[in-house]
């Protein structure tokens, strides 16, 4: 019993055409016309398998394939439907298609699982509309109340609530459509790796041990603007000099205070007035720290704060530090990981256990249920770009592992 490469290829080929930027990568934002078309295609496929299908109040695609015992908790399988702007054809949707394919295989082999299988295509994972990630899963796990949707605004200032209503959804339904802990046995997500580890080491499968948490902070150094020619070097309050000292020390801070898995990035910097012949008055930059281990992230963060204050004092500058986001690291379920590992070993697939540096809906789901994540390789480690690619052979291998994992989980 195995998944079909031809069907997976056809599904991905069909859905990648639903893009608002043809020829320039895949752009399929939640609540767009392309999103609706992709969902309609999947809904037709799901109905042909005898599944019950609905789109919930926040736009998550939800289907159920009935098991023998309706009073048992369901096994969820899926990923997200949306993309970033000019993204690729594999991020997210590969996991939704793999879930669909797994159910097709169950149907064609007349396998009646004990548990009902729930297929889920999460909405708004990427943060493309509202600048915040994993909103679809946060809403259905109760992390965001329906009343809060009126306060979340898109880039045009329209509220999430209004966007949902305009796209024909009913956000009022959300409160009764929540997923309850007791109704779910576990969640399985297949996803492309979005990094280079599997491809570089020629591995077929990544078993995700955990999803890194994030601490994102904004650092602002305030000095004094003055004439670049007339101000002596010893009388300056140059914010950019201090900022550059802090930024260039971040690597050492991670080495000295983090673990081998800790990463930190200064990816954004703003300089004011940003004029070639004026001493910088104000420099703001972000620091993004990630790891599975919360203590490691906190140690790095503490030292970044200490060091920023020390350097600012040295130059007699002001330093403000504020938190932008903070997510804790999430461990996946060890029992499910062991099941996946046994399957991968028995099939003779090359694999490794790894962390996910990127956030996923599974991290949100882990708060209410046991989760397992299977990674398949991303060619050259590229993702969120039009060149994003995963071979269909790799997707099939991952889907077969997903199928077998689901069947083993069903027998527990
Ligand atoms: Zn994704």
UniProtKB/TrEMBL annotation:
One of its GO terms (molecular function) is N-carbamoyl-L-amino-acid hydrolase activity. Its EC number is 3.5.1.87. Zn(2+) 2 binds at residues 91, 126, 384. Residues 213-315 form the Peptidase M20 dimerisation domain. Gene3D superfamilies: 3.30.70.360, Zn peptidases. Zn(2+) 1 binds at residues 80, 91, 191. The keyword Transferase does not apply. Keywords: Hydrolase, Metal-binding, Zinc. Binds 2 Zn(2+) ions per subunit. It comes from the Bacteria. Its cofactor is Zn(2+). It holds the Pfam family Peptidase_M20. It is an enzyme of class 3 (hydrolase). PANTHER family: ALLANTOATE AMIDOHYDROLASE (PTHR32494:SF5), ALLANTOATE DEIMINASE-RELATED (PTHR32494). NCBIfam families: hydantase, PRK09290.1-5. Belongs to the peptidase M20 family. This is N-carbamoyl-L-amino acid hydrolase. It comes from Clostridium coskatii.
């Amino acid at each position: 019993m195995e998944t079909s490469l031809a069907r997976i290829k056809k599904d991905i080929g069909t859905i990648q055409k639903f893009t608002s930027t043809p020829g320039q990568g895949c752009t399929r934002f939640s609540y767009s016309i392309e999103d609706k078309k992709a969902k309609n295609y999947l809904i037709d496929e799901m109905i042909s398998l005898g599944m019950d299908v609905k789109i919930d109040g926040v736009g998550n695609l939800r289907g159920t394939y009935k098991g023998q015992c309706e009073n048992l908790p369901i096994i969820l399988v899926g990923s997200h439907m949306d993309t970033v702007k000019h993204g690729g054809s594999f991020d997210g949707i590969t996991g939704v298609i793999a879930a669909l394919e797994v159910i097709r295989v169950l149907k064609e082999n007349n396998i009646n699982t004990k548990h009902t299988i729930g297929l889920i295509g999460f909405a708004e994972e990427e943060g493309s509309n509202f600048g915040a990630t994993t909103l679809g899963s946060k809403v259905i796990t109760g992390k965001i109340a329906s009343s809060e949707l009126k306060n979340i605004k898109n880039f045009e200032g329209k509220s999430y609530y209004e966007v949902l209503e305009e796209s024909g959804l009913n956000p009022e339904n959300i409160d009764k459509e929540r997923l309850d802990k007791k109704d779910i046995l576990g969640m399985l997500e297949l996803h492309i790796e979005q990094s280079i580890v599997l491809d570089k080491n020629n591995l077929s499968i990544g078993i995700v041990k955990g999803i890194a948490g994030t601490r994102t902070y904004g650092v602002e150094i305030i000095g004094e603007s003055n004439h670049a020619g007339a101000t002596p070097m010893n009388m300056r309050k140059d914010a950019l000099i201090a900022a550059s000292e802090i930024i260039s020390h971040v690597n050492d801070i991670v080495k000295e205070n983090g673990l081998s898995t800790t990463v930190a990035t200064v990816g954004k910097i703003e300089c004011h007035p940003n004029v070639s012949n004026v001493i910088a008055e104000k420099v703001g930059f972000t620091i993004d720290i990630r790891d599975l281990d919360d203590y490691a992230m906190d140690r790095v963060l503490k030292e970044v704060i200490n060091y920023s204050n020390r350097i600012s004092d040295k130059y007699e500058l002001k330093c403000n530090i504020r938190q932008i986001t903070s997510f804790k690291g999430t461990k996946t379920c060890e029992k499910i990981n062991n099941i996946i590992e046994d399957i991968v070993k028995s099939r003779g697939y090359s694999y490794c256990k790894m962390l996910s540096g990127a956030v996923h809906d599974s991290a949100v789901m882990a708060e209410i249920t046991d989760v397992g994540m299977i990674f398949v390789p991303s060619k050259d480690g590229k993702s969120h770009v039009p060149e994003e690619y995963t071979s269909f052979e790799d997707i099939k291998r991952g889907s077969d592992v997903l199928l077998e994992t689901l069947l083993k989980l069903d027998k527990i």
